[in-house]
Structures are given as C-alpha cells and as structure tokens.
Amino acid sequence: MGSAVAKTALLAGHEVSVLDEDPLSHERLDAGLDGTWEDRGGRFTVGTALEIDALLEAGIENADAFLCATDGDNTNLVIAQIAARRFNVPRVIVRVMDPFRAAWYAEQGLETISPTAHAIDMFEKALDL
Amino acid sequence: MYVIVAGGGKVGWNLARELIDKGEEVTLIEGDRRRYLVIEQELEHAVQYGDATELWVLERAGIQRADLVIAVTGDDEDNMLVCQVAKEKYLVDRIIARVNNPRNLQHFKLLGIQPAVSATDLILRLIEHEVPRYGLVHLLALEEERLEIIELEVQPGSPAAGQRVMDVDLPEGCLIISVLRGGDGFVPKADTVIEGGDEVLLVLDPGLEELITPQFTAPV
C-alpha cells in the first residue's frame, strides 16, 4: 500500500521519502519505474518509525504530510501520534485495519483510513444490503 | 478493586496471580491461544483469550468498570495503546504500562501514559544507588504530582558542608528531609549541621536539580 502511494506521489512531482525496516522493500519501489527509485528523485531510509533518529534521517522535520502505512495498526497509531504531536507534521494519515479503532481515533482528531471498513462497505453494497 | 491485566507473559501471569491472592478481582487478557490454554488451567475464568488492543476484547473484559488497567505485553506499541484507550475512551482512573525498550519511554510520555515502568531503568537506578558515580540518585519521581526525591552526597569542601540546614542556600521548592551519616538516617532540624561525607535526601519540584547540586559539590 505504502509503496504504491509513494510511487504515485513521486510521479506526480512530489518529494517522497520512504522509511522501511526491510532493506529489500526497496525493490518494490523500483518495480515499474524507468530507472531506480533514487534516479527518479525518491529517498529511502532503512529503520523503524519508533526510532527518532530514523524519522529525522528520513526528513520528518520538513514533511508536509506523513503516511503511516505499515502492516501493524498499533505501530501506525503510535507513529502517527509521534508525527503529529512531536514533529507537528501538518497532515498525518494513518492506516488502521480495525474499523472500530479507526473510528475512535478519527474522533480524537487523527485522519484514519480503514481498508476493512471500505471492504465491508463494498461487500454490503454488492449484496444490496 | 477490579484490575485488568493485558499480556499473560511472565510478568502478567505472576502479577495476576499475586493480585488474586491479595483478594482483588482480576481479568488477564492473553492473545496467544496456546499460552492462554496453559494459563487457563490455573486461573480459569480470570483469564480471557483475545487481542487486548481491540476495543471489543476490552469491553468483554468489563473495562467500563475497571479501577486499574495494567499493560505488560512484550510489545511497547500495544502497551501504549491499551493504556491510551483505557484512559481516554473508557476513563479508567489508573493505568500502569510496561516499557520493554527504554528508548520508547519518550513515546509513552508523549502519549501521556504514566506511570510507565521500565525494568531496565529500575535496574539502572539500583546500580546508581549502589554505585553513586555521579553523586545524585533519583529515588522517586511522581510526574503527575510534580514531586521528586533525590539523594545527594555532600562533598567535603562544598558550600553546604559545615552549614546548618537553615543556612544552606537552596532554591524555593525544595527541602532537606533526611540525613544519612555513618549508616544511620535521621530527620534533621533547622539547626542540624551538615557534614562532608553525609548523604542527604531532598524533596523538590522537578527541574531544580541543577540549582541544588552545586551546593553539595566541592569546587574543582
């Protein structure tokens, strides 16, 4: 999910920095691009988002938007709050699979996206419920 | 008192057992099915199976009437979020969180999760207490109450050595509450004379350490 949005954003002309704990995830960023991710102007940092040093290296202090799209809801919810409260990133968007927590954190002011809630919605529409 | 413990590892299981022995009502929540089945043999209905970061699991455990929620899983993000929803969504009066990696302590603070207990930090403090390399030991920090107790070594030749307690030049918001001399501790009076080699305990508003330590440190 993160890599797809990162590529779209880069191709749309934005400055994009990706932080991932797995160095091999870089390959997914290269796939389908002419040249490597870096050739196209992208940045890539290896580290976890709970490490402040990694966030700084990835350039969080200058970020206009921060996307939390790891495969863990709990990690995403914590780093989203770090980005918003500690680094005052103006726009923080966080992936939360669990629709109930997505709803509650949205009430608390986080911009949450719940793929599960969307899928449930689509199933229900498909079934005319 | 009704206590919910999230995480049935060594810490959580033993904590639940001790609290039950003390007569408290306890629900332990464990997310690993095999581990849950093992614990269930002993704790029976006092353990529930589920992911304690999910709201319905917490609600099934009766978080609305919990007096205390303790999050002691091996995952710091889980502990932070269990405590955050306990405090902010379900308005639980008291929370306690375990910090696995002391570098994450800053994140617990950022999210307002207090107290956050780190075994590594506790052991480090004990080491400092046994081997006071820096002369200053934090004995107690009550962050919410904004109160600290520190222990300081009075170096011979420091401004405080040879002074009466009332004459030591200390900032507003701190008080010498105990003097340890030759292995004995006593509560000083205003005219008690502080000697070099004493250890003193002070109660203070947080942040005053830097103003206090020079009084007990000999000029280089």
Can you give a write-up of this model?
The complex is a heterodimer of chains A (129) and B (220). Chain A has 129 residues and is an alpha/beta fold. Chain A is 43% helix and 16% strand. Chain A has helices spanning 2-11, 26-30, 52-57, 73-86, 99-107, 115-126, and strands spanning 17-20, 43-46, 65-68, 91-95, 111-113. In chain A, strands 3-4-5 form a three-stranded parallel beta sheet. A two-stranded parallel sheet of chain A has the order 1-2. Chain A is globular, with a radius of gyration of 16 Å. In chain B, strands 3-2-1-4-5-6 form a six-stranded parallel beta sheet, with helices on both faces. A five-stranded antiparallel beta sheet of chain B has the order 7-8-11-9-10. Chain B has seven helices and eleven strands. Chain B has helices at residues 10-21, 33-43, 55-60, 76-88, 105-110, 119-130, 209-216, and strands at 2-6, 25-30, 47-49, 68-71, 94-99, 116-118, 136-142, 147-153, 174-181, 184-186, 199-204. In chain B, 31% of the residues lie in helices and 26% in strands. Chain B has 220 residues and is of the alpha/beta class. The chains are: A alpha/beta (129), B alpha/beta (220). The A-B interface holds A 50-52, 72-75, 77-78, 81-82, 85-86, 98, 100-101, 104, 108 and B 53-56, 75-78, 80-81, 85, 88-89, 103-104, 106-107, 110-111.
